[in-house]
Structure formats: structure tokens, C-alpha cells
């Protein structure tokens, strides 16, 4: 529908004089020239689309989830290489069509992005000049009280640097940073990378999500916002935000159309700071991180997990979750960005590192192979890193 006129063209129109029987007896002039329809090439790679569909369907079935989405971007061009949703449908079998399966959830459905936003909070911290990756935060005793709300870590991580904060997804550490920074700085960082604005693909139902006004925030709201609560975004928006990190701080438009030239984009964050952040983010998929299942042999993956309670009519629902993983690879010079959202998984597993990270790992590993992206890590280095590797937690 969005490109109907582009494809079909525009019929011409001319003014004529007719007799009483409706026959044209004289042409008075041309009102509009005819315009032929144009060709349209989608950016979707059918090989990658099939891989994303297969892996997502398997995960949604395995974890008995209500739904799920995968978005895979070419980090250099902003092209959407794959976009899959579950439940899906067969357009050739109209008798089995379910209206709930027809919408493109990756574009239309909103989630609280949760801890996938922590890298952006740390980017604001680095940009403030008050923090460097080696800055240490005291997270003792493993929880922090802000107003009437207490935020907990999975365990007491003690004194940790910013890289470990990301690796363990520390709520306490993130809260302390959030309360130390100006609230408008974190919000502005989110806005700069595209959170709170429509991605602009032209796809029907595309939504800008929500980015609340910081001027009325209490301390507890500042903390919540810093780890991705109290705002909303689509999977495509999260992918666009991570593409900024992949492109050394340059924001490029995302598109479902094949591009002839690589867009220049607009610089929104310092490239050196973004490079430091990506290095920090590789700890998430390394030994002891929350997303070891997103690791890909021979490549460093920079990413972040996210796990949030679902929002119902009466607020957060106690035992219902959304698990996410967002990342980019190769970490030193990203070619691909992907986001996986698993909505309402059942059976006791719901952390993003458990339900979403494996989908990322499988989809992106196949994409790297199909697109012939050179390995980042030598085989000898890979063997050394795997020996003695321990699984981390999940969040």
C-alpha cells in the first residue's frame, strides 16, 4: 500500500469536449501526463529471511511464547535484510488467516526495551566526561533503595568497573550512574539514536513509540529510565539505535528498499566513545556474561540482553515477561545488526540471554557465512578462548 502509486504509475488526464451522446469531438488540452509504474527492489535477502523465520519459529515453539520478532540490518546501508514475525501466516491459504498474525510486529508492536538501553546510558556517562570504561562503581550490598523502590542485582557484585556492569547487567550500578548524571542527558542520548521517533520506512502501522519528558522525573523514574523502563520502542527502532553504535555514532535511515548508494548519515555521537562502548559490550557475550548463547565462533559479538515484565491493564504482570537481545558483529567493524524479541515465553525460561540470544547467534552466524564476512578471530585464538569457558547468567 505504501508504494502502490510508485508501482502502478499515474494515469494521464486530458480535457475534452463531448457531444450529447458522450462521444469525444475535440481535445482541449493535456491536464496531466501519464507516468509509468516504476520497479521496486526490496532489501530483503530471501536466504536470510528464511533463516530468521526458521530460527524464530523454533524458539517461539520451544518456549511456548505468544509471539516473537527478528530484525536483521546491514549496518553500513541501513537496509533491512530480514524481518520475521511469529505467529506468521500463509497468504496463499486465506481460509486459515488469523488477523492477529497479519501485522508486522517488528514494526508495529511496542515493548519496554529494558536493559538493551543500558549501553546508551553508559554512552551518556562516557560522553559526560565523568566516566571512563575503567571507572569503578560500588554496588554493595547488591541492592539500592530509591524513594520507596528497591532495585536488586542477581547477586552482590561488589565494586565493579563499567564493563563488568554491562556484563552482569547491574541494576544497582546503572541506578547510581543515572542519579549522578543530568536526566536530560540520558534522555537526549536515547533520542539522538532514534528512540521516540518513527524509523521512517513508510511501512503501514509504523510507530514512534514513546520517550517521556524528563522534566517531571523523580529519582526513581530517572533510575527506571536508565535501564529501559517507562519508555517504549519497536524491534525496528531498537535495531536502528544499535546501528548508530555499529556505524561509529553515525545515524543512517533504515529502509526496506534496496539502496543503490550507501547513505552518508548524520553524526550524533563521538566515534571514539562508541568504539569504546562496543568493546565493553563484547563482555556480554563472553565468559561470565548474560548472553554467552549469542556468541559466534570466530567473531566478537557486541550486544546486550533485556528482560522486562509484560505490561497489563493493571501495570506490570508478575509472571509474564519479554526477553530480548540486541547486538552487532563483528564488534570492531560491524557489518550486521540484529534484534530478537520473544514475547511471553512459558516453561520457566524467560531471560533474554536464554530465549532471545540463541536466535541471534544462529541467525547472524548464518548471515555472516552467506554474506562472506571475513572471520574476526583467528582459529588458534578461538580455541584458546573456548577452553575453560564458563556460562554466565542471563537477564
What is the element layout, followed by pairings?
Elements (H helix, E strand, L loop, with lengths): L3 H5 L4 E6 L5 E9 L13 H17 L4 E8 L5 E7 L18 H4 L9 H11 L7 E3 L4 E4 L2 E4 L6 E3 H7 L2 H10 L2 H10 L26 H8 L8 H12 L3 E2 L14 E2 L3 H11 L20 E11 L2 E15 L6 E8 L8 H4 L1 H14 L8 H8 L9
Antiparallel strand pairs: 1-2, 3-4, 3-13, 5-8, 6-7, 9-10, 11-12, 12-13
Helix pairs in contact: 2-12, 4-7, 4-10, 6-8
Q: What does the model show?
A:
- The structure is a single chain.
- The chain is an alpha+beta fold.
- It folds into two domains: 1-40, no CATH class; 46-386, Beta-lactamase (3-Layer(aba) Sandwich), CATH 3.40.710.
- It has helices at 4-8, 46-62, 105-108, 118-128, 162-168, 171-180, 183-192, 219-226, 235-246, 271-281, 352-355, 357-370, 379-386, and strands at residues 13-18, 24-32, 67-74, 80-86, 136-138, 143-146, 149-152, 159-161, 250-251, 266-267, 302-312, 315-329, 336-343.
- It is elongated and about 90 Å long.
- The chain starts with a helix and ends in a 9-residue tail after the last helix.
Biggest sheet character: 5 strands, antiparallel
Assembly state of the chains shown: single chain
Sheet with most strands: strand arrangement: 4-3-13-12-11
SS-based structural class?
A: alpha+beta
**Helix segment tally:** 13
Element-level helix/strand string:
HEEHEEHHEEEEHHHHHEEHEEEHHH
Shape: elongated
Strand proportion: 15-25%
Please count the beta strands (DSSP E, at least 2 residues each): 13
What is CATH's topology name of the largest domain? Beta-lactamase
Output the CATH homologous superfamily of the largest domain. Answer: DD-peptidase/beta-lactamase superfamily
Amino acid at each position: 500500500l505504501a508504494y502502490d502509486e510508485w508501482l502502478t504509475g499515474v494515469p494521464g488526464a486530458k480535457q475534452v469536449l463531448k457531444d450529447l451522446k458522450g462521444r469525444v469531438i475535440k481535445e482541449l488540452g493535456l491536464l496531466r501526463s501519464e507516468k509509468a509504474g516504476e520497479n521496486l527492489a526490496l532489501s530483503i535477502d530471501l536466504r536470510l529471511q528464511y533463516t530468521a523465520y526458521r530460527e524464530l519459529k523454533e524458539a517461539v515453539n520451544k518456549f511456548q511464547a505468544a509471539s516473537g520478532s527478528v530484525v536483521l540490518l546491514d549496518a553500513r546501508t541501513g537496509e533491512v535484510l530480514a524481518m520475521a514475525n511469529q505467529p506468521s501466516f500463509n497468504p496463499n491459504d486465506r481460509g486459515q488467516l488469523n488477523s492477529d498474525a497479519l501485522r508486522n510486529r517488528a514494526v508495529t508492536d511496542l515493548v519496554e526495551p529494558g536493559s538493551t538501553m543500558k549501553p546508551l546510558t553508559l554512552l551518556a556517562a562516557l560522553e559526560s566526561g565523568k566516566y571512563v570504561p575503567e571507572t569503578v562503581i560500588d554496588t554493595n550490598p547488591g541492592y539500592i533503595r530509591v524513594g520507596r523502590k528497591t532495585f536488586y542485582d542477581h547477586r552482590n557484585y561488589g565494586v565493579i568497573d563499567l564493563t563488568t556492569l554491562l556484563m552482569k547487567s547491574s541494576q544497582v550500578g546503572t541506578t547510581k550512574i543515572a542519579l549522578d548524571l543530568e536526566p536530560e542527558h540520558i534522555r537526549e542520548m536515547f533520542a539522538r539514536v532514534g528512540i521516540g521517533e518513527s524509523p521512517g520506512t513508510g511501512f503501514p502501522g509504523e510507530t514512534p513509540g514513546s520517550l517521556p519528558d524528563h522534566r517531571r522525573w523523580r529519582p526513581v523514574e530517572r533510575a527506571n529510565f536508565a535501564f529501559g523502563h517507562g519508555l517504549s520502542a519497536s524491534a525496528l527502532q531498537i535495531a536502528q539505535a544499535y546501528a548508530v553504535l555499529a556505524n561509529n555514532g553515525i545515524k543512517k535511515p533504515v529502509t526496506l528498499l534496496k539502496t543503490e548508494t550507501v547513505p552518508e548519515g548524520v553524526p550524533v555521537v563521538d566515534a571514539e566513545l562508541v568504539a569504546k562502548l562496543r568493546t565493553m559490550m563484547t563482555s556480554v557475550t563472553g565468559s561470565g556474561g548474560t548472553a554467552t548463547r549469542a556468541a559466534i565462533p570466530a567473531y566478537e559479538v557486541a550486544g546486550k540482553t533485556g528482560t522486562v515484565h509484560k505490561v497489563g491493564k493493571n501495570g506490570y504482570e508478575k509472571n509474564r515477561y519479554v526477553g530480548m537481545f540486541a547486538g552487532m558483529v563483528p564488534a570492531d567493524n560491524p557489518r550486521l545488526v540484529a534484534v530478537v524479541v520473544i514475547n511471553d515465553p512459558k516453561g520457566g525460561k524467560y531471560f533474554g540471554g536464554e530465549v532471545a540470544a540463541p536466535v541471534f547467534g544462529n541467525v547472524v552466524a548464518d548471515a555472516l557465512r552467506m554474506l562472506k564476512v571475513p572471520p574476526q578471530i583467528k582459529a588458534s585464538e578461538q580455541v584458546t578462548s573456548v577452553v575453560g569457558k564458563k556460562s554466565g547468567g542471563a537477564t
